[in-house]
Amino acid sequence: MPGIMDGTQKPNYATTVDIVTRAALKEMILPALIPIGVPLIIVALSYVLPNFGGAKMMGGALVGTIVTGLFLALAMTSGGGAWDNAKKYIEDGHYGGKGSPAHAAAVTGDTVGDPYKDTAGPAINPMIKVFNIVALLLVGFLVH
Question: Rounded to the nearest 10 degrees, how much is the dihedral formed by the CA atoms of 124, 113, 28, 71?
């Protein structure tokens, strides 16, 4: 739409949202398969390799997922909040206030921090839950 740049045409926002949504969903396929695939791989390997220790490995994977996921989610959520608060602090007049190099850096940090605290950090919780549910559903196959 060539008229967007000179102001004679309005952009088609629905097409823009559609393009971005399709791309985002395509990029989320692999991360969504990880909490489903890892327990399946552990069970499959325990059948192929008899001395694999599938039940112990599943327990280790569960503990690793819960512990690392918990701390990662906490770090992402609190870190994003800290970036957001730093920008507000600078905008209140500290370190040169608005328009200063510190404010420019804080705006960049806040741009990263908002999705960090609002989406990425909280998204770890469903990943932990899906991993746990799939592991619990498959644990019967590990005791053979």
Answer: -20
